[in-house]
Automatic annotation (TrEMBL):
The keyword Membrane applies. Residues 1-22 form the signal peptide. Keywords: Membrane, Signal, Transmembrane, Transmembrane helix. It holds the Pfam family BatD. It comes from the Bacteria. The keyword DNA-binding does not apply. The chain crosses the membrane at residues 449-467. InterPro entries: BatD. This is Protein BatD. It comes from Aestuariibaculum sediminum.
Amino acid sequence: MTLYKQITLFFILFLTATVVSAQVKFEAKVSKQTLGVNERLRIDFVMNQDGDNFNPPDFSNFTIVGGPNQSVSNKWINGVRSYEKIYSYFLAPKKRGTFTINQAEITIDGKIFKTVPIKIEVTAAVDIPKDPNDPNYIASESVHLVAEVSKSDPYLNEAISVVYKLYVSPTVAVDNWNEIDTPRFNDFWSQNIDTQGQKVQNGTYKGENYRFLVLRKTVLYPQKTGELTIEPLTLNIALRVPSNRRDIFGGVLMTRTNRTVSAGNRTINVKALPEAGKPSDFTGAVGDFSFDVTTSKTELDATESLQLKVAVKGNGNLKLFKLPKVSLPSSLEVYEPEHTENVRTNLSGMQGSISDSYTVVPQFKGKYPIPSVSFSYFDLKTNSYKRLSSEEIVIDVLEGPMSNATAENTNVPGSTKQVVTLNNDQFNFIKTDTEFVSTKRSPFFKTNLFWSMLLLPFLAIPIAIVIRKQKAVRDADVYGNKIRKADKLARKYLSHAKKSLGKKEAFYIALEKALHNYLKAKLRIETSELSKENITDLLIEKQVEQDVVKDFNSILQSCELARYTPMDIVTMQEDYDKAAKTISLIDKQAR
């Protein structure tokens, strides 16, 4: 072989080695392609050159319980550099079936590389080997999440509690956890109890010593009868479990692992309230209550005011029923009541009081009785209905004008007839003389109307140009168009609410949308900013009066409680009128 051929062969081999070494690899590797629904899958995205904009696939059929974890390896062997970078995910399947993990993407040296899709088969749950040296088995036996329900067969609107406890064996250590599935408590009115500051306690689980921590406490009021499901709380827990290895001092080495635990579904059988003995004015109050109707004064002068207060106190679903209305004589002017709630919630349910305070102003002198008011509720202690009634209250108006009804009582109706008197002018409305007008048509040519119609097209041209410019400016005003659109939607939904009067759910959904869209237009905010606190602060900044802000929030609260509280058409009409009035006041007061 000549020297020239040897040199040529050398360069060919060198270039081939260079191209091979520079070839980019980006691939996906899985720990297994068939697994049980109770097992986990590890997937690694491996590349031999560093890249940017890594975009993992959508793991829609899996729950990510770990990752992404990133590792980089840089090695030099015989002067040759090898590089490897790995993104790792740990996945738990959501259900059985055959699923495809789609392509991942990454940009390397300005080019986009993709992995090959991988099919994964998820079978029924498999038995986890009882291997005392397997970290997954140790974790499954050492960590448990339990949902403790206070009562499994409550009545409708009876309070129950659910407490979630995490039990951990003393042999393992928990580093952290995060919720991957939070219960939504459909068909329940719910309120979480603050668990901040809870300390780890010692207890037993299935007869063995454990440490436990209370993670969540929730009070529930069922809003439907029959079998209701409490959805599970699911956690992903990072923990350390003992291994069969020891350090140089004889201490047990710990192994890191992850464990998904779930409290499981709980079924509640909700009993309907008995129909026997149910009062006609029963509005859904369940618990143990006292009832009172009081007035700030019973003697006053006309045009003075007094406060009439209707209050319910006790334990039960205080926020989920309406107080009875008061019927007053027509001579007493009555204003819309101010609703007040002083309710606290703990594991036994709601406790406190609610009240409606009416401002009453008498117009005339006299004595006016306020009839007895009744309130009915279902007593859980005796499993029967009870009715509480107030005493009749007499309002004595000492000074003031007499009413017309009182004055008219002095006359005897029908005792005399009024005499009809005729006069000579009774037919003066009939005209006896007329003025005739010519019916001959005048010529149209060269009249004022003729010249106006002739010049009108020429005058319309500049007007059309101005209108077109204004339209272009308006179309370019993206933010202004967004505001006008939200305002248009508010009017639209308010009209929908009016059309839906009598249909509780449709009415309050439309009313709530109208209020939200109106605020977005008026305050120039987005949907994500529509929190109660933020709305109050922004309206006060716009110099809207406190009473108007309070009325607006009360309407929103009525929309929220409409799911749980029976509403009649009168109440819906009141809420609609109140919403229209409040929007008008905000328009006038906002700066």
